[in-house]
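Schema walk-through. Below, the input block comes first and the output block second. Nothing else is stored per chain. Lengths vary across the set, and this one has 283 residues.
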Amino acid sequence: MNTNRQRAPRFLLAAVDIDDTLVGPDGVISAGNAAAVAALLARGTHVVLASGRSYTNMLPFHHALGLPPGPVISAQGAVVQDSDTGTVRFSHAMSATEVADVTRDGRARGFAVQHYRPRGIHVDVRTRWTEYDQARNSEPHVHVPDMLTSGEDGGAPHDVAKIIWLGDPDAITGAVAETHARYDARLAVTRTDPPYLEFSAPNVSKATALAAVADALGVARARVVAFGDGNNDAPMLAWAGLGVAMPHAAATARAAADVIAPDGDPETALARAIALVLGEPAS
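--- output ---
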């Protein structure tokens, strides 16, 4: 028997979402999930984190898992950076015109607005929702007098990878349909968590970033597995050779996935998903 072939991993590349996939409701990586990721690594699978979070906010999770140096997919796929050097492998910024339009529109609707830029997450107001966001993330917000005059030329910046509207969940819900109608032909618009509505450059998603990473690593699409739970994970789950949704996943993620992980404790949903992929009993 060819033991080398027997040991070869079925999937050479795995993309793992962070919030509500790698980490559960308590916001930390459970021992079970960490052990499951270690099992993937032991099989020779390259594990990449893919999140809407900023690169800086993702690094603690990368290092906690003991992942080897490699790409980190951040800002809903708008940016891919090297985990050890911070070198930007590629990025897709929104145009200054779109940045100005989305920012003014969000302000007019009464939402706090965030700009994801290379020098951090920029805000120009403090609200209960910006404080809520800050409590969930380790990277301090960068407070500026006016985000629309913080570009190098004193106008709207040209280096915004993502914009978030933050506000009361009911108000965000009320804005979703109209916002999609206004922006879908121009931008990628995604409802993530209840207080968040997010905007990226057109045709930017975790799927486009994962496809670029797989190509750079020489991994065929069929040898890529992705794990996620949210609306922003749906394109990635659909693109991967195997998309695995968490049992508590949003309807869009469940519909895009090939399989759904077994029910159970949400803190160890990823562990059960990985066990399913590896053909092993979940612990």
